Amino acid sequence: MSRNLRITNNKFIDQTSRISFKFDGKTLYGFKGDTLASALLANDIHLIGRSFKYHRPRGIMTCGSEEPNAIVQAGNDASMTEPNTRATEIELYEGLEASSQNCWPSVNFDIGAINNFFSPLIPAAFYYKTFMWPANFWKLYEYFIRKSAGLGKSPTQPDKDIYDHRYLHCDVLVVGGGISGIIAAKTAAKNNLNTVLIDDKNNLGGTTIFQQNECFKINNSYSNEWLKKEIETLNSIKNLTIKTRTTLAAYHSYNYLLARENLTDHLDLNERKDKIRQRLWKIRAKKVIIATGAMERPLIFNNNDRPGVILSYSIKKYIDYFGVKCGQKISLFTNNDSAYETAISLSNSGVSVNSVVDIRDRTNSLIVQQAEKLGIKIHWKSAVVNTNGYKKITSIEIMKLSDDDTTVVGKKIKQECDCLGISGGWTPRVHLFTQSGGKLKFRDEDNVFLPDKSELDQISIGSCNGDFELDSVVKNSVISTNKFLKVNNNDYENLKINSSNEINKKNIWLLPSNKPLGKTKPFLDFQNDSTANDVKLALREGFKSIEHVKRYTTTGMATDQGKLSNMHALGIIAETADVKMGELGTTTFRPPYTPLTFGAIVGRNVGEFFDITRRTPMHDWHAKHNAEFENVGQWKRAWYYPIENESIHEAVQRESKAARDSAGILDASTLGKIDIQGSDASEFLNRVYTNAWSKLEIGKCRYGLMLNEDGMVYDDGVTTRLGENHYIMTTTTGGAANVLGKLEDYLQTEWPELDVYLTSVTDHYATVSICGPNSKKIISKVIPDLNLSDKEFPHMSFRNALIDNIKCRVMRISFTGEHSYEINIQSSYGKSLWEKCFEAGKEFDITPYGTETMHLLRAEKGFIIAGQDTDGTMTPVDLQMDWIISKKKYDFIGKRSLYRSDTIRDDRKQLVGLLTDDPNVVLEEGAQIVLETKKQPIEMLGHVTSSYFSPNLNKSIALAVVKNGKKLKGQKMFVPMKNKTINVTITDTVFLDKENKRLNA
Amino acid sequence: MLNYNSTIIEAKEYSDIKISEVEPTLKINLRGKNRDFVTKIGKELSIILPTDPNTSSGNKELNLLWLSPDEWLIYSNDKNNLETINSSEDKLFNDISKTKLGSVTNVTDHWIMINLKGPKIFDMLSAGCPFNFNKFKYSKGAVTQTLLNHVDVIIHNKDINNLNLFVRRSFSNHLWLWMNDSARFV
Amino acid sequence: MFLINCPYCGERDQSEFSAGGEAHIVRPKQPTELSDDQWAEYLFMRKNIKGVQFERWNHSHGCRKWFNMVRDTSNDKIHAIYKMGEKPPIK
């Protein structure tokens, strides 16, 4: 069946380089420069897929990004296959394998097509209406609906391709490389503006580049020849960057734009290795010139969706640019002049044109005269009322329009054809303009929405601004660009332009038929299979807002975002509801303009670059010693160090026991550290912490609790007084950046009078923490000069020391309740110091422990972890930490909130300890705590915040927040779980060493 | 003896880009507001403190980078030994912080200095940095603090196609890998 | 993505900044003198208007300085930027 429909005299396609590809398993041939669509048409293949709802056969309708029908599954590899790609945008490459979508078992015989016969039973919102009841049947329906929903197949393997992001800053960005864009880009760049010109095609020139017609001339050359010379001059212009195969995806405020550049999709598969497939350009332009052109509209009439029904100008591009005949006997149906350009091109290439059916009264513009001269038959004031054929169009039926255009009259003429070109006029591509927040205005004369007001430094030029004739496109582009860029470029002065200007304009949104509307299928949204009837039904059912009609009928909601259908939907709504289109407005155009791959969106943020990781200076040691790591914010922290096949539980039990029985060593380098200097440093600490700081002696440490203004605990940590006006504050690992930010905020905005300076030194210091009864002996080996007696170096104090001549700060502080030291040394020596301590501790079986053991040890002592036992709703009083609130201080952050009516309520959730009746049962963190299990609904009184099996107490322990918990000590409560209810008793929060004897052990 | 450990093992060279770590170098963070502070620093270092945003000053040994209206970073051009670093810090600390003129904080190991050289370094940076380098590229001595692949960095334009980039030590390994990955595609 | 003219560093990408809520809400000098309602007014009440709004922003990944911004929340247009402690240049 395959015939060669290629003509030979063609400038754009290299007919010497043949490319083989597969479509639906069949091997076919095309040429370099083809799109998949043009190659398929050259092979006389029109049937590409089945429609979404009715499974009607569908073919190629356009030649660009607005294609609704010819969407295919591209690629056969499980990691690279891509659904819903437009055959009109896929550049042909050696090895391409594409297949039809939404059909089973094949596109030629599709069982789902039975839906077409039931179509009167599947009106708009069929699913909403049908599957509403009974409500609990949804579970059943959903399975089947999900199965039949969606188009194409997702890849099942990870994407092997490489994607990239790049920022770009320019003076002028020109979007669209047609004649207007080229004029604008050249003007900008020649005036020393750093200019970027992008176009989604592989070549510049837009539609003008293949427009070789007597009616369109510039300075006596054909418009295409004139433009070709202009493009050639671009190469020599400095300041101009041209990016082809680059689609503008999104236009955001402040002239921030995203563009996707396809770098390898057109290459043979074996040429793509190790190259970036797509690059997402993040463009910040001072000025933006939109020159995105216009797209042709279809016409809405019965059975306008058959394969072989193609937009008229696309037929022209296939013949003039690709050298492909869309048929042998082509009919055209139009409401404007542009179909005559197609008729002339076809005729010049030797394709017979049956006739042009024109809904207008006779008109005699230059282009029509030229067509008539070539002997092309024209049916004036007529309409196509039906098409025949199933997998491809075989004939059309033509009737005369009545005088008032509301109905068709007279005899029906049947005309055989294998292709029907349709043209419903032109729609300016204003999508980017509206994405950027621009407002549209409506031009009644030819029913177009045009750019109106914008807050941004941008203009639209050419046909996207409503200029559709060659002379107005060129002249207005030149004037607008010069004015917009405030330059005086005279390259385009005194151009002599010949153009055939349209005289007669007419538009009928829904063409009349000889059949009642209900018996016809005038498709509006081809991809989502909604017809003009669906829109009318929605209006009858009371929907008024276009946004509602859109969602109810799904018109414009497919992957093409209704590029072809929106205008007609609006037109029909306006007509039916009898309102003006300009008043109706449009639906919202949202980015991306065409679908983006996930790869392009994530760029290189995959695998090891998925998220930032921070490492401590001792990281390599932990890794070498088999540590499992835990993510704490961006940090990788040693979690536990399993020996051989130990489970996490076994390792943590061993580590916890060792730390209390002899010695443990922990990498605490991730704690936030802020250096505080200035004569008001003490006053500053008084204001940010709940407790008093003025009397802290130099060389002493103090634990502090920081609140938000609402009185809730925000962060905690130990701060050390290093000198008269010098402190070092530690924060939680996760809170470091936020605490510094918050403190800077107060200093800059509320207390600028304070002489205080903050500097983050988190990364400057590595922190080695050694705890346990033998910690003192180990430290004395590492720093023999330091007097470690309790009198000279008591708990909560600090000393400067030298280790091998390197300065360090040693703090005697404890987060485990054990006798414990923290050594801070500059990071470059952190790993070495760790190793030295580990070596010195060997005789005491020093055990490295991770964050899990640290959490367990502190829970035995009832120490909170801000962020685990607190959640932004806990005051210090709720935490039973009343002792840390200074009564004497006049003010500190959050003080006033501590006696708001809400914070002094008795029945707030308060921190308590929990013991399970069965000491071997470990509660789940997050489990709910109740008093009453019989009564429904059960009142949830609190939840478990921390829970462990304590090897040192040989029982399960937990911390929890419980309503009115302070007063409930000794109360039996329940933790209901899925299969059992656990009995618990509320206790004190401190489980081990209540007298703090171990600190000085 | 304690050993010095750097976060980055070796310099890497690509066509048009060379990435190398320059450590250990002295780095001191300075903060202060009043005129006495500015004068004192000038005297101590024999370098005028840069007060114009995004600029730097310096001499053969030291660079002074503007970070904010009351914050600067001192760093040395060449690698230093520990004694030099400590004595410089102590002297400044005693003369500035103890006299309540401002703050002096040793951040030698807080930041890692990475030198970037070659005609394509700005292309590599623009893969993950929203900063507009169009003018910066040609402004010798210019300083910017920005984000590179979501990580805070300070960038100092030493010379044409020759930058010193500062990243916090804990992020340095990650950013180093990212830069090397990015350099492959420039 | 805004382009914000930091009053210290110049024009920078929005990703270098963080927003800090409504501007010109001064922390009471004597919170303990306030009634619950007065304190709640300071603590919780924000205008959150559609239209021109006064906001606090921080150049958190640059100079770390806080400043004020007058922004129209309906179209994201920034009308003015001024330093902390300065009077708004427009009403």
Account of the protein in words:
The complex is a heterotrimer of chains A (1001), B (186) and C (91). By secondary structure, chain A is α+β, with helices and mostly antiparallel strands. Chain A folds into six domains: 155 residues, 2Fe-2S iron-sulphur cluster binding domain, sarcosine oxidase, alpha subunit, N-terminal domain (Ubiquitin-like (UB roll)), CATH 3.10.20.440; 204 residues, FAD/NAD(P)-binding domain (3-Layer(bba) Sandwich), CATH 3.50.50.60; 127 residues, FAD/NAD(P)-binding domain; 157 residues, Gyrase A, domain 2, CATH 3.30.1360; 91 residues, 2-Layer Sandwich (Alpha-Beta Plaits); 139 residues, Probable tRNA modification gtpase trme, domain 1 (Gyrase A, domain 2, 2-Layer Sandwich). Helix content of chain A is 21%, strand content 28%. In chain A, a hairpin with a 2-residue loop joins β1 and β2. Chain B has 186 residues and is α+β, with helices and mostly antiparallel strands. Chain B folds into two domains: 91 residues, Probable tRNA modification gtpase trme, domain 1 (Gyrase A, domain 2, 2-Layer Sandwich), CATH 3.30.1360.120; 81 residues, 2-Layer Sandwich (Alpha-Beta Plaits), CATH 3.30.70.1520. Chain B contains five helices and eleven strands, in the order βββαβββαββααβββα. In chain B, the strands form two sheets. Chain B has a six-stranded antiparallel beta sheet with strand order 1-2-8-11-10-9. A five-stranded antiparallel beta sheet of chain B has the order 4-5-6-3-7. Chain C has 91 residues and is mainly beta. Chain C has one domain: Folate-binding fold (2-Layer Sandwich), CATH 3.30.2270.10. In chain C, β1 and β2 form a beta hairpin. The model of chain C has no long low-confidence stretch (mean pLDDT 95). Chains in contact: A-B, A-C, B-C. Chains A and B meet through β8, β15, β39 and α22 of A and β3, α2, β7 and α5 of B.
